[in-house]
Amino acid sequence: MTQPHKRAIVIGGGITGLTAAYRLSTEAKKRKIPLELKILEAGNRVGGIIHTEHRDGFVIEHGPDAFISTKPWGKALCEELGIDEHFIGTNSKVRRSFVVRKNKLVPVPEGFYMMAPGSFLPFIKTPIFSLKGKLRILLDLFISAKENSDDESVADFVRRRLGIEAFERMAQPMIGGIYTSDAENLSLSATFPRFLEMEKEHGSIIRALLNQKKKASQTSKDTSGPRYSLFLSFRDGMQTLVDTLADKLSEFIQLNTQVETIRRNDDNSHWEIVLEKNTKLESDLLCIALPAPRTSQIIRNFSPTLAEKLNTIPYTSSVTINMAFRREDVTHPLNGMGFVVPIKEQLNLIGCSFSSIKFENRAPAGNVLLRAFIGENKIQNRNHEEVVSLVCKNVSDLLGIQSSPIFTVVSHHNKSMAQYLVGHQTNISDIQDQAKKIKGLTIAGNAYTGIGIPDCIYSGDQAAQSLLDSFTNS
Ligand SMILES: Cc1cc2nc3c(=O)[nH]c(=O)nc-3n(C[C@H](O)[C@H](O)[C@H](O)COP(=O)(O)OP(=O)(O)OC[C@H]3O[C@@H](n4cnc5c(N)ncnc54)[C@H](O)[C@@H]3O)c2cc1C
């Protein structure tokens, strides 16, 4: 039996909104719901933060350069879209990364994971920590697990278990590189719940990592290893994912359409979506797939309490700089994926990926592509051109580069990275409870249960499913 016709609007054409729209269209077909769908995107392209540019044979990522394959939702969507055949994994020959110490690149010891060693010999030999720092790290084997389950910051957790050096020299730069934020404020349970589990299950992070290593070597003896690399991208860049979704949804996408506010109509039967110049659209179902502060602005007249809650999730800005060089001008062997920079080193960047080493097909033969990240604290109230030239100088000094880059591509990501502060999960369940009470509306994006691409895909997917469920169950 076919259902009555419905209108659905998705606000925001980033990966979250595109996934929500895609799932609305496929699921509506499955459930035989005739759906009139629209995706409203403020910009002149879809994809949001995900954006690949091709230039003179280089594949330049303005935003993300890969996604993790251990969270299943990213690869599952790609398999469903039939683009898994374009997957590329990271270069298996150069697994290691570097950390800056006294203006030099030092390899992260083999087996070291974010904050703790999973192998003893390379850890003992590394010059990254002092002898005192190493002994303090090893105390993790004897410190008992925290008894209460109160959330704590990543910084407090690392210092409690492994000491100040483990935090300042490794955990802070590693985590800073992922979240472009201050580990002093980041919630451990919302960002790295695995470490909490390790503490609970094994009473020690080091013991948990050693155990994990033992299990992994057992599994690799028993099987031919995992099907995919830990991090995945596409031969032509992350844009492949966006372009594929955009192709499938092209008839529904409305670009250059900024939503100002939403409200219910007079008899409360549907949504009114108010655009610039006070034009309006109508819809029965609505998914807002925007950064939380933008969602807050849009719903503030309709639900001031939820809007206020959403505004408590801060977002930080960052800048990426892609730099192309001739290989012969770079003295460093580039025998790794890239490097991270502890705050203690007082340089101008968080880290730098050796993009054309990390992934194939990123630079034409004889050239290299590097990508530096700059955090909000270095760009706030500063002249951006000056920061960019300081970062290029830092990178050149560290890698022994004598010449100027062939070109640089600077990308600004204004307030695009959600910060999961201590207490985030309680805050989010409160937000989700409030949002659930609003019929015909879902919110999705990187503010809630994960900032990575697979998390955003999951969030968009769930938002679409629950919208259709609310409709079929009504
Ligand atoms: C520099 C950087 C590097 C990253 N690297 C990685 C990585 O390597 N791997 C990984 O997994 N994740 C990475 N992330 C995180 C991940 O890319 C993001 O969390 C994810 O892309 C967010 O997608 P989104 O659709 O939720 O939001 P967005 O991409 O921000 O999309 C929101 C969209 O909404 C539109 N919009 C805004 N306001 C309105 C309005 N009022 N009306 C209509 N449209 C509007 C915007 O124009 C935009 O297109 C990175 C993030 C950054 C900033």
Give me the secondary-structure topology:
Blueprint: E1 6-11, H1 15-30, E2 35-40, E3 52-55, E4 58-61, E5 67-68, H2 72-81, E6 87-89, E7 98-101, E8 104-107, H3 120-125, H4 131-138, H5 154-162, H6 164-179, H7 188-191, H8 193-202, H9 205-222, E9 231-234, H10 239-249, E10 253-254, E11 259-264, E12 271-275, E13 280-283, E14 285-288, H11 292-299, H12 304-310, E15 315-326, E16 338-340, E17 351-353, H13 355-358, E18 367-374, H14 376-379, H15 384-399, E19 407-418, H16 424-436, E20 441-443, H17 453-472
Parallel strand pairs: 1-2, 1-14, 2-10, 7-16, 14-20
Antiparallel strand pairs: 3-4, 5-9, 6-9, 7-8, 11-12, 12-13, 15-18, 15-19, 16-17, 17-18
The structure holds flavin-adenine dinucleotide.
Describe the structure.
There is one protein chain. Helix 1 (15-30) links the parallel strand 1 (6-11) and strand 2 (35-40). The chain has helices at 15-30, 72-81, 120-125, 131-138, 154-162, 164-179, 188-191, 193-202, 205-222, 239-249, 292-299, 304-310, 355-358, 376-379, 384-399, 424-436, 453-472, and strands at 6-11, 35-40, 52-55, 58-61, 67-68, 87-89, 98-101, 104-107, 231-234, 253-254, 259-264, 271-275, 280-283, 285-288, 315-326, 338-340, 351-353, 367-374, 407-418, 441-443. 38% of the residues lie in helices and 21% in strands. By secondary structure, the protein is α/β, with parallel strands linked by helices. Helix 1 (15-30) packs across helix 10 (239-249) and helix 1 runs parallel beside helix 17 (453-472). It folds into three domains: 6-46 and 239-313 and 422-472, FAD/NAD(P)-binding domain, CATH 3.50.50; 109-221, protoporphyrinogen ix oxidase, domain 3; 315-418, Alpha-Beta Complex (Polyamine Oxidase, Chain A, domain 2), CATH 3.90.660. The mean pLDDT is 94. The protein has 17 helices and 20 strands. The chain has a seven-stranded mixed sheet. The radius of gyration is 23 Å and the shape is globular. The longest helix has 20 residues, at 453-472. Flavin-adenine dinucleotide is lined by residues 11-17, 40-43, 48-50, 63-67, 258-259, 289-291, 294, 318, 320, 413, 416-417, 445-446, 451-453, 456.
